[in-house]
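Tokens as discussed.
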């Protein structure tokens, strides 16, 4: 099983930065901590070299809500800009910019061009980050992806950019969730097979 060392390095620094920036937003902090915990449990679905990147992105994905970070008012973009300006890895900024299919909402908000400054990766890491974010509610509570999407639409309202982007965004989020669940199943099968052969 892939484990993530949070005591030093990128994950440790990401935790500390998120804790500082989100200290003014306790709910957002609890959500981010919940997403990071979920990401740790999904570490086996990404290559071992990417596990720390995944968990660091989970800690930082919502820092764009902080008043210190906020510029455009679109939190994925603002978070990514802040990370780039402060020398964080390019891939990490890209994951934050594009987390949970943010581009679909950016298009509705007329921010597509600004988002092009950040590379969008389609990867097991991006899938796992989306899955972690979409299975933890606003206050850190575990939710199904369908509960989370319903709750998001209720909170943002029917006339919001999120609601407009929903028909395009939701199928992509469900696609990420399906791929992560398949990878989790494969990890569990491999683990069980390993235990079986070790025992036999
Ligand atoms: Fe989030």
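Sequence:
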């Amino acid at each position: 099983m892939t484990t993530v060392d949070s005591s030093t390095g990128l994950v440790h620094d990401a935790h500390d930065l998120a804790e500082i920036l989100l200290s003014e937003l306790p709910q957002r902090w609890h959500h981010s901590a919940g997403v990071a915990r979920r990401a740790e449990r999904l570490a086996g679905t990404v290559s071992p070299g990417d596990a720390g990147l995944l968990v660091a992105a989970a800690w930082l994905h919502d820092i764009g809500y902080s008043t210190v970070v906020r510029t455009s008012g679109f939190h994925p973009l603002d978070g990514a800009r802040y990370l780039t300006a402060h020398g964080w890895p390019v891939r990490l900024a890209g994951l934050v910019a594009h987390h949970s299919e943010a581009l679909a909402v950016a298009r509705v908000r007329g921010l597509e061009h600004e988002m092009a400054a950040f590379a969008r990766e389609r990867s097991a890491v991006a899938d796992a980050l989306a899955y972690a974010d979409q299975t933890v509610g606003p206050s850190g509570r575990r939710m199904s992806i369908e509960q989370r999407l319903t709750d998001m639409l209720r909170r943002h309202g029917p006339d919001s950019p999120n609601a407009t982007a929903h028909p395009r965004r939701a199928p992509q989020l469900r696609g990420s969730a399906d791929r992560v669940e398949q990878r989790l199943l494969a990890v569990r099968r491999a683990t069980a097979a390993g235990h079986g052969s070790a025992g036999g």
